[in-house]
Amino acid sequence: MDIIRTNTALLLSMFLMKGYAAVDPVAWSLLPEKGFPQVNSGETTSVVYTLAVNPRFPGPVVLHTQFDKIGDTFSITDKCNNVAVKPGGKCQVIIQFTATNSTPSSIQMSYQYNNNVIKLSRLNTSVTEVHADVVGSITNLPTQFTLSNPEQQPVFSVTYTNTGTASVMGYAGNSAGTNLLSASPESVATVSVVAGGNGCGTINNPITLAPGNSCSISGRLTPHAVGNLTVGGLFTYNNGANTVNPTGETQVVNGSGQCQLSAATNLLFHNPTYQYSDNVLQFKFTNPCATAVTLGAVSYTSTGASSTITPGEQYDQCSNTTLAANDSCTVLVSVIPQGLGLLSVSAQVTADSLTASATAATTVQAPGYTHTVTFINQCSFPVWYGVSQPAGSVDPTQNPSPNAYLLAPQVDGQLSAAKSITITGTYNGQFFPRTGCSQQSSSSNFVCATGDCGSGANAQCPNGNVYEPYTRVEETFSLTIPTQGGYDVSLINGASIPAELKGLGPQSSQSNSPAAPFVCSGAGAPIQPPYTPFTPQYPAPPPPAGPNNPPTTPLGNCPWQYTAPSSSPLFNFVSNTTTVTDCSSCSSPNVCGLAFQTTPSAGNVVLACGNLLGYWTINQLCSSNVTYVGANSAMNPSTVFNCNSPITNYSIQSYPIGTTAYDIYSCTPQGSSLESCYNNNNSTCCGAVDWNTTMPYLTWETQQAYTANTDWINGGSGSSTSRLSPTPQQSIQWLKDACPTAYSYPFDDHSSTFNCNTSDAAQQNQVNMDFEIVFCPGGIIGDLSENP
Question: Pro residues compositional bias: what residue ranges (predicted)?
């Protein structure tokens, strides 16, 4: 039985005069009735408050909620705040608690209607400090589901994550091979593992969880009676010495004649949530019904701090679609807080006249403006952030070790892993993601599949060398005003996982400046906010003017989907699972491409089948940093792309003697040739494409090019010469399509350089700007392997 309390207080005396003396407007209940269950450090649990309006009350009641939090991490999904609840109606507030340590924490909820404020009892947490390596969590468990009319059989997931520094071997369930999942009492509902849904092993087939890695098991609930239900999972590891047992609460209720779509928040606000940060939220809608349902358009509402809310239309799998039985869909929305304080954002959709809604809530705080860089991981796999150390630049990571750089994988419904560093002096280097990292022992070198930097046992990069391909994130810091330079994301020498870099400042109010959209915006962002009105006033030529009719959203969104020229496998960067002489022997899920023969530092590459880790570029493949040692010479990228061939083989224009195809591919200046086409009108300049005049429109530019080199566009000139394939333009176009706001070649400055120096829109108050770097923003990984 839930504890139910009714409130009389002042409102009762008011209704005595109006003839409603027997009506108590609002009642509350709590599940579990004793509050938060005891949990181990690192685990997550939740409680559910239900507020119900008396069916005898004469009209709807508008509810308002508030929370007083002390101590550890709470995440609140509030479906009651500022909601008008009809007589007989209900709303729910879900409070999730993640135990990061054993320090006592508590939360007190208050709700208000009319002039009455009801403070509920404070809920205290109880945490057992343990040193287990594996933590568990339950996601997509609805707060309630129906017994009949119609019967619902919801599917949920249990995820186990290795938070330790060493691999563990384990399996779902106990040593007898049972209790993979549990539901108690079984008289209310039973649980079964979804066919093919166990990714966590069994007693007879255990799995190995590397540090930072996760596994999941999916279960389906079948209801039998109305009542409260506790759902749990079990993971056993270290030869049975350790177990982890996450639990969650739900209810079985009688139906109302229609199947109810369920909704959940998969990606939450960043923790902490800073003003002007780009929070890409993901909401998930699930059809637990026996038949398909038709969805309307997903809409968004917000309360609290003012925010720029931009739905990601290209990531909307739900609006106006038909959702099959037991199927799910997701949507992404960018939320950039402009104000401070409490903020909640909800996504809702109507399915067969019933509305399902999910909410993400946070408290927005002001940036500290201390040159702090925060790394956030929204990838489904572990990422180690990297900081290069060229001469004069120092990595400020405290007590460097593999675990110090580790960002745990994103788990649905949980806060994203985040770590921060503060630059106290000058820094002129780069930040980058590292994936697939390991070391043989605590004293051996820390080696990574992508972003390897030749680090020793402590995982710190010893210098400025990082071995491409990887996604490069660049920023400089200084002690003189402005105390930071331009920032960018670069794909010139290749790509690994997606990344977004954003300064925590406001958009510029100087809307007539062609550079205004690049002020404090997200380089690499999957969803760019609108910038309006934008009326750019170009200076008189030179330089060349640009178009005066930009779209409402001038910067292009980054889908992080790559389509290589001619679909050549040489652009695929893969792990060396199996060395091959041609691609015919590769079968899914493996991908054919170029892999490092041994370690990235050696620079030797071979044709191989393996996991897709990222992408090579001609700029990198033709460089002296790559040596092809494969058995099949026909797959040598230097030969395929004619890297060392004289440019005279392809052009009738005059270039300095010794100019090669690689020079025009890489825009390496040769005398007065192959300089930027944005700086001169020499017909042998390098580039250019005006990305804001392409069809379709790609992204804004701060300046147009003086001219374009026909050799760069067409791969050559003259009727009797050969053509480079792909053409130099084609060799970078696919990179720009994958991320319009990232550098695709060295002279891509006017569409890819951002700046953020002030804390005010008028750009007067210079500060030591803070930045956020999000890996796999919105959980987007493109076509990369699930665990590169």
Answer: 531-553
